[in-house]
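Most newcomers find our protein records easier to grasp once they have seen one. Sequence and backbone structure share a record, each on its own labelled line. To make this concrete, we reproduce a full record directly below:
***
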Amino acid sequence: MINSMTGFGRGEVTTNGTTVTTEIRSVNNRFCEVSLKLPQQIQNLENEVREFIQRNVSRGKLHVMIRVDEPVESTARMHFDREAAQQYLSMLEELRYMMRIEEPITLDHVISNPNIFKLTDDQLERVERLRPLILSSVDRAIAELKKMRTQEGSHLMDDFQKRLDTIDETVQTIASHAKERVPEARLKLQERIATLLDSESFDKERLELEIAIMADKLDITEELVRLSSHTRFFREAMQNDESVGRKLNFLIQEMHREINTIGSKASHAGISHHVVQLKETLEIIREQVQNIE
């Protein structure tokens, strides 16, 4: 089954009065891109949370927000590193002098460096106690996200099936039109041959060339067969449990190539009309495929 890259998931875990809530919103993206918003006291878990998400979600741009609600007595206690703050201030003053900047150094400039703030040892232990709650909350949010993406993927799959049916039906119609135009083309070829035979400078090789060119222009059987084959592969790929968005996009490109070739070979008003319909249907599928994981 195919999965959409659009969705929302929410996970909440509560233990001993502490509640961790994770919300994940996702949209389409070529890769798995994670944007995290964490409380200050668990910033050191950012890489671990990011890697956890990327192991469980293959594609999509994910906006993740984690909130931690704790009893007052458990809230984070921090202290600032006096020596680090002083060194940072000195560096800013030196840079200001070197760059000839007139603006004075303010408190905002100093506290913008998060490295001067540190958690106390007991709070570091607290973060370790929060780790399983955070990962469990993220895991539940991912499960909800996947559920919604699967539901959306199911709707897209139903729509794809209908549009692929339309393409297959149109291919059959084009094939019947191609057979109908054979007598017309044969008559035109006979008239052309007669013209060449009446010419005093009749060239047998030129005649054979004209026949070969005409035959090549008339024959779209190979393109129709390949187009039908691509729609079959498209259906098979949708049944795959793996991420198939890139494969479906490749098949769309191949189908577009065959349709263009059919259009360039067609010298029949009916076939040209159906080629336009094929392109319109395929464009709708192509736009929707961009949202498939």
The chain has a mean pLDDT of 84. Residues 193 and 199 are 10 Å apart (CA to CA). The two ends are 11 Å apart (CA to CA).
